[in-house]
Design a protein that fits this description.
The complex is a heterodimer of chains A (254) and B (563). Chain A has a domain at 1-81 and 199-254: Rossmann fold (3-Layer(aba) Sandwich). Chain A is 35% helix and 24% strand. Chain A has helices at 46-54, 75-80, 97-107, 112-125, 141-153, 171-186, 198-204, 222-226, 231-239, and strands spanning 8-17, 20-30, 35-39, 61-66, 69-70, 82-85, 159-163, 190-195, 207-212, 215-221. Chain A has a six-stranded mixed β-sheet, with helices on both faces. The relative contact order of chain A is 0.17. Chain B is an all-alpha fold and 563 residues long. In chain B, 74% of the residues lie in helices and 1% in strands. In chain B, helix 5 (128-183) packs across helix 6 (188-215) and helix 8 (235-244) runs antiparallel to helix 9. The chains are: A alpha/beta (254), B mainly alpha (563).
Chain lengths: 254, 563
């Protein structure tokens, strides 16, 4: 399977809200087995692009394929291969962590005993077992990210799409998530994630795409995009914008 | 230009209520931007409000226009009192309050509590219902003016404004207090009981009112109106009439009563506002009971749903069933169904019975209540229960994304939601039928009563499946179960109305059968009604499920709150 199709293919995805263009035609090929970082400044269209890629937001134009299955024409097949952790979307947070995992597992048509076993392991590894029956709404931001990741991983998807997985996560949990994702990729899975933290992307990714103003500005393997500079230099050059203050804000320093 | 950094913390201009009003108007305007249908719905709602207001205006001005000052006090006291009662209870039971300006958003601003409360209060006054009310109640000014000249008209106008302030303050204070009670796990059951008592008060009031009207004892009614006129319920409205009828000393006293009540309500409101601002994020103390001996799947399923298979359908039902109890907004709806479903039929059936206080036979039940009347009240209960699902996806908000990502088929989704809601509603409906039948002393009627309930409830499920898929709207992510977005108020009202009318139309054959079939209906009512309801619900889910399958992302976008 891995040889035939890229894990994720996007062709001409476009979306505008109220006449304002959010994504203006994105083409992307994510090779199977890659660890793919989607970089971009705030408001670049990362979340919109990923939402269209996984079937949460209907694109104005273009299409998306997951391992060869069209997300919009044949959603059932495509969605079975997918694990998604959206950003800025609530979980069913009036459930406890365990209940939420059970819900996601059964919703994916898994066998109850397998759900029990995997959920127990995930809660253990992610250090969420101590939370017991605390409702997810009462979790801290970092714990919510972790339970969201667990929900996306539970059914063993072939492709994992994560929107800002390292946002609001403390260093220990971030290391844990990195380790889990690296094992997942080593085991043949594919990860696509969005971020604007250069350091994390540089450390993890085999491939990088830089998105700004709704279009892909740079794409390729990490080495190709970076060249002999740091990823941050490339990013700032591509995205533009000022990185230092001038005469204004004088009142900040007395 | 270089001002020291620790200096400009002192505000140059004071924040006044004007800022809040302008902020609310701006937020309302921005909500409409680029959404033509919202503007259209808002206009339709405003026109309906205007129409009712004009009707009420002439009703209240009638004593003056007819020149009959015998009824002036009666109408002012009763209509005014009912208005206050309505503002007090209806937001709790049906409509919620417009929380365009969510108090929690002001938590970080350096505003005194007094500034905040007066500001939010002023903003609350800017709404379609208040404008319509002001127009309607101006009828009292006309009456007072005709009988008492300019001075009475001026006093009446002041009274009407005071009364309106009282209504808004009461609605805010009560919903805010209930919201903070429902938030805390400790007293939420107490809140439910209080709500039940409040609704129950409507029953005796109506019975007493009907009895009084049947007696046509105007002296007694006038006496009652005089008493109401000295309570906060009627004081503001009757001041102008007092002036016109020569009791000049009473007018300032009544205005004072109203003013004191308004201040008291605002103080009460500011108390609960504080808890709304601080405790907005958490739904109460975490219950960390580490009991993971059983598997997570067993945890998900509540005991009442333990018989479900551990598959997709089972998981959906179990999650929904948990949500109906754990989500304060949904729980408030369940409580409403239980309370209103029980008391409205009692009122309708006993009220229509000529059940009077000084009746010779005392409390007799073999009165004029008929199978048709009972069927009609059951129709109402059934459609009221089902209309709760009119925005069932809106309750989920953006969390619904999980089902979209998992690709849940539309029919499965709708079936599961119906089943979970029915876990709560069916027992309630059974209780309603049994209690009403026993109160009426007609146990033989239970069969067709349950049948009518099931038929309308099933029809309502079908209708509301469509409404919920096509007409979903987002609810604000606040902790106030009574809150809704501005603009959504009109949408909600219209959708609810449409859903209820459609359900009633589908349920009417049950009433017709009760009228035509006579005794045979006692036996046929239950099986036919049950079959009718189940068939309607399944057909609705079958058809609406197809629509849902085509609209998953659109539905998600509709229920996701805009930020």
């Amino acid at each position: 399977m891995t040889g035939e199709h890229p894990a994720l293919t996007l062709r001409g995805l476009a979306k505008s809200f109220d006449g304002k263009i959010a994504v203006a035609g994105v083409d992307l090929d994510v090779p199977a087995g890659s660890f793919y970082g989607l970089l971009g400044p705030n408001g670049a269209g990362k979340t919109t692009t990923l939402s269209m890629a996984v079937g949460l937001l209907r694109p104005d134009a273009g299409s998306a394929w997951v391992l060869g299955s069209d997300v919009w024409a044949d959603p059932v097949t495509a969605k079975q291969l997918l694990g998604v952790m959206p950003d800025g979307v609530r979980l069913f947070d009036r459930l406890s962590g365990g209940e939420l995992l059970a819900y996601h597992g059964l919703l994916r048509g898994m066998d109850p005993t397998v759900v029990d076993q995997r959920a127990a392991e995930l809660l253990d590894v992610l250090a969420l077992a101590d939370a017991g029956r605390t409702l997810v709404v009462d979790y801290s931001a970092g714990m919510k990210k972790k339970i969201g990741l667990a929900c996306a991983l539970l059914h063993g998807p072939r492709l994992l799409v994560l929107d800002e997985p390292f946002e609001a996560v403390d260093p220990v949990s971030a290391a844990l998530i990195r380790d889990i994702l690296q094992r997942y990729v080593a085991g043949g899975g594919t990860v696509v994630f969005s971020s604007h933290v250069m350091e994390v992307v540089q450390r993890l990714c085999s491939h990088v795409a830089i998105l700004a103003e709704g279009t892909i500005k740079r794409v390729g393997t990490l080495e190709e995009v970076r060249g002999d500079r740091s990823l941050e230099d490339v990013f700032v050059e591509v995205v533009g914008g000022r990185t230092a203050t001038g005469e204004e804000l004088a009142w900040l320093s007395r | 230009m270089a001002v020291p950094m620790n200096a400009p913390a002192r505000p140059v201009r004071r924040v006044t209520a004007r800022h809040f009003v302008r902020l609310k108007l701006r937020v309302m305007g921005n909500n409409f931007r680029g959404q033509g249908w919202r503007v259209a719905l808002f206009l339709v709602g405003s026109l309906i409000g205007l129409w009712f207001a004009v009707g009420a205006f002439f009703g209240l001005a009638a004593p003056g226009l007819a020149g009959d000052d015998r009824y002036a006090l009666l109408i002012a006291a009763f209509a005014g009192g009912l208005t206050v009662l309505g503002w007090l209870l209806l937001p709790l039971v049906f409509f919620g309050v417009d929380e365009t300006l969510d108090p929690a958003r002001f938590a970080l601003l350096p505003l005194s509590r007094r500034t905040l409360v007066t500001g939010l209060f002023a903003a609350a006054l800017v709404s379609v219902p208040t404008v319509a009310m002001l127009l309607a109640l101006s009828g009292l000014v006309v009456t007072a003016g005709i009988f008492g000249g300019w001075s009475a008209a001026v006093v009446a106008a002041i009274g009407v404004v005071f009364g309106l302030l009282l209504c808004v303050a009461a609605a805010r204070a009560v919903t805010s207090a209930f919201a903070s009670m429902l938030r805390s796990r400790r007293v939420r059951d107490l809140a439910a009981v209080l709500l039940a008592v409040a609704a129950a008060l409507l029953g005796p009031l109506q019975i007493a009112g009907l009895a009084a009207i049947q007696d046509a004892n105007w002296d007694r009614l006038t006496g009652l109106a005089t008493v109401i006129g000295w309570t906060p319920f009627g004081a503001a409205w009757t001041a102008g009439i007092d002036m016109a009828q020569g009791r000049v000393w009473a007018a300032p006293l009544k205005l004072l009563i109203t003013a004191v009540t308004i201040v008291a309500l605002l103080i009460w409101w500011s108390r609960s506002l504080e808890s709304a601002m601080v405790g907005a994020a958490s739904s109460g103390p975490a219950r960390a009971r580490p009991e993971l001996t059983s598997g997570v799947v067993a945890q998900l399923f509540p005991r009442a749903a333990g018989w479900l298979r551990r598959d997709r359908f089972g998981a959906l039902v179990a999650r929904e069933a948990r949500y109906w109890w754990r989500d304060a907004r949904r729980r408030a709806n369940l409580i409403t169904i239980a309370v209103v479903g029980l008391f409205v039929p009692v009122m309708v059936n006993l009220g229509g019975q000529g059940f009077t206080i000084d009746s010779e036979q005392g409390f007799t039940s073999a009165g004029s209540s008929s199978p048709v009347l009972v069927s009609l009240s059951m129709l109402f209960v059934g459609l009221l229960a089902a209309v709760t699902l009119a925005n069932q996806f809106g309750f989920d908000g953006s969390a619904y994304a999980a089902n979209v990502v998992a690709g849940v088929p539309g029919r499965l989704e709708l079936h599961a939601r119906m089943a979970a809601f029915s876990l709560y509603v069916l027992p309630m409906l059974a209780v309603v039928a049994v209690v009403i039948a026993l109160v009426l002393g007609e146990p033989a009627w239970i069969g067709f009563m349950v049948g009518t309930l099931l038929a309308t409830y099933g029809a309502g499920l079908a209708v509301n499946s469509f409404v919920s898929v096509l007409g979903a709207y987002s609810l604000p992510e606040t902790s106030n179960p009574f809150a809704m977005n501005s603009g959504a108020g009109v949408v909600k009202g219209l959708l609810t109305l449409v859903a209820m009318l459609a359900t009633a139309a589908i349920g009417v054959p049950m009433v017709v059968a009760a009228a035509l079939l006579g005794d045979a209906w006692l036996w046929l009512g239950l099986p036919l009604g049950a079959a009718y309801g189940v068939g309607a619900a399944l057909l609705g889910a079958y058809l609406a499920g197809d629509v849902l399958d085509r609209r998953l992302p659109e539905l998600l976008a509709m229920v996701t709150p805009r930020r």
